[in-house]
Design brief:
Blueprint (H helix, E strand, L loop, with lengths): L14 E10 L12 H18 L4 E4 L5 H9 L5 H4 L6 E4 L5 E5 L5 E8 L3 H18 L21 E7 L1 H17 L1
Antiparallel strand pairs: 1-5, 1-6, 2-3, 3-4, 4-5
Length: 186
């Protein structure tokens, strides 16, 4: 099977791709921005231990073992963020061959689970994200509070999940302006 971003999905003429993200933190550890390198190593070790049990063909790749071109490629594919590259020695991703599942470990939160799809695929991707999250929750002790959302990002405190649809309308608008400029210059 080809990588998701090489495929056309439902309404892909308008919506290029969809991404669903779930942020999770582990019980017994400080938020990532307050964690020591030793604590980050413990988190990474715990996640590395459970990856084979999750399925989906996930493999763990440590950022410290990647060359710069690979890291830049992952950023360009929007699988990781530019800030994630600078996070330190105890960062990694769990990713599958199709690159439609990517879990950043020790990013803004301990775990940032992301699923990707072509076109508009919000329901399917949310189902996949929840399925994977439930498997992870059985194997890792998530931090949980009835009163608070345990997320380190203040701009996302309203919810622990985020979905993003990249649409082509801004690209189409730029293409129209370009064509108008070309036709005026003739």
């Amino acid at each position: 099977m080809s990588n998701w971003y090489l495929q056309n999905g439902k309404d892909s003429d308008v919506v290029v791709s969809t991404r669903v993200r779930l942020a999770r933190n582990l019980k017994g550890f400080k938020f990532e921005n307050k964690c020591s390198e030793d604590e980050k190593k413990q988190i990474l070790d715990k996640v590395e231990e459970i990856i084979p049990s999750l399925g989906y063909g996930l493999q763990l790749l440590k950022l410290k073992d990647m060359d710069e071109i690979t890291k830049i490629s992952l950023v360009e594919k929007k699988l990781i963020t530019p800030d994630f590259i600078e996070k330190g020695e105890n960062t990694a991703i769990a990713i599958n061959k199709e690159e439609n599942i990517c879990i950043m470990i020790n990013s803004e939160d301990h775990l940032l689970l992301q699923v990707f799809g072509e076109g508009i695929a919000l329901a399917e991707l949310m189902n996949l994200a929840v399925e994977l999250d439930q498997k992870m929750e059985k194997l890792l002790p998530y931090a949980y509070s009835e009163k608070w959302i345990l997320n380190s990002l203040s701009n996302e405190c309203w919810n622990r999940s985020k979905s993003i649809s990249n649409n082509a309308s801004s690209r189409l608008s730029k293409d129209r302006k370009l064509k108008q400029g070309i036709s005026r210059s003739k």
